[in-house]
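Our working data are protein records whose layout never changes between entries. An example says more than a description, so a record of this kind follows.
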Amino acid sequence: MSKAQRLHRLAYSLGLYIYYIISFNAHAQAMKNDDCSKSCIELEQFVEAEVENDLATIILFAEVSDADAGKSSAKGNELLNKQIQKIGADKTLLSKHATQISTSIQYNGEGRPSSWKTRAQVTLESKNFIELSKIAARFTPDFAYESIQYHLSSTAMQQIEQQMIIQAIAQFQEKSALISSAFGFKNYQLKKIQIIGIHGHESSPYKPILSSRAILAATPSTTFLESGKSNVRVTVRGSISVE
């Protein structure tokens, strides 16, 4: 056998050896993963709560029109600025106040342009429901109510979320211990965990069933006092291995 043939055979044997080593390690890793998947248990625990809403948002609007787009827009801006001035020093009672103006073309029954309509909108937000209703009443009779929404503020949501996460984790641990014991195992190990915070919540909107004039004539205490509650949830998901 020539020297070249011996070198070729040696290289072939070495390559074959490396192949078997890699294949064995891959097979061992697969067996390890299979064993884990067989002994791992997927769990989920959630905590729900009803929380009193602490923030109210009122949206009011008014509409004006004119044959000329510029004049229609000017009317809308003038009306909106006039109403905003009525808030005055009470702006400090609001956590948010925003305005919006939009102008669109209107068509007659024949599908031809007839006029321009400008919509002026103001959004008021506050934790003081009574004072908020008084401020909103100053926009009458030029503005009407579009919606009244009660919800959780970001501060309140963060506080309740922290409490609920602690509760959910404690309950997840209790469930893990209970399940591992029920299957006859003494211990468990946490393999992975996922905590889903309050990424959304269902609030209780207030939808007026009276006419706008009737609502505006009502006293603030009878109109805006029922804030309702929000349903919130925190979920803990994970897997444990029992031994």
Remarks:
- The beta strands are 40-52, 55-66, 96-107, 113-126, 144-151, 188-196, 229-242.
- Confidence is low (pLDDT under 50) at residues 10-34, 201-223.
- The longest strand covers residues 113-126.
- Residues 215 and 222 are 10 Å apart (CA to CA).
